[in-house]
Predict the structure.
Amino acid sequence: KIILEERIDGIEASYIALSDGSVAIPMATSQDHKRIYDDDKGPNTGGMGAYSPTAVIDDSMAEKIQNDIINKTVNSMKKENIPFKGFLYAGVMLKDGKQYVLEFNVRMGDPECQPIMMRMNSDLYEYVNACVDGNLSKMPSISWKKETAVCVVLASKGYPDSYPKNEEIFGLDFKDKNSFVFHAGTKRDDGRVLTNGGRVLGVTAIGDTLESAISNAYSRSEKISWQSKYYRKDIGKKGLAYL
Ligand code: GLY
């Protein structure tokens, strides 16, 4: 038997905060693309691409999520003597100005982490250290680059079901100042880099606007190749409608 309590449709986004057990400070907002195919079609994956910040979460929505979801969770856990330290990730569905929690993760989120890290000016170590020591309330707000960052996940054809492994990846030695390639499902083999997972690389680029970040991320992604490479062609596009 299945009991359906409520169907929540709307726009999904990610809100991640860092907590030291007493207070929680927000990371930059972001939006994932969970389905395997363009236009959010096909089965869910771990995430095929993300961008930060997202206009889907405006300042007033960010405040609501921070106060009504994150702070309440952190305060309640402290009260129950199970203080939570670390990254708290709320996957939220937004509908008619209201926020609904779909899931909590206790980590930064992949691939949201990649564009968020590309935009962080402050030193992550200092914040993680303050989190461990319970000193987050003494830290200044995190400083973020004004630019937008986009991460395109390069996967192996067949993911999220079965996919080939051990294919040689080419084009990794190219470097430019706007982009960074995060490795996920790869391994080294005698000087070569081979695929070793479904989601293989997170190609992340920064740009003055969402549009230019998209363009930079795709131009870097196109320079990388392997036999079964697959990626979505519309990462970030749904964010353009909210600008
Ligand atoms: N991108 C979703 C997650 O990390 O769970």
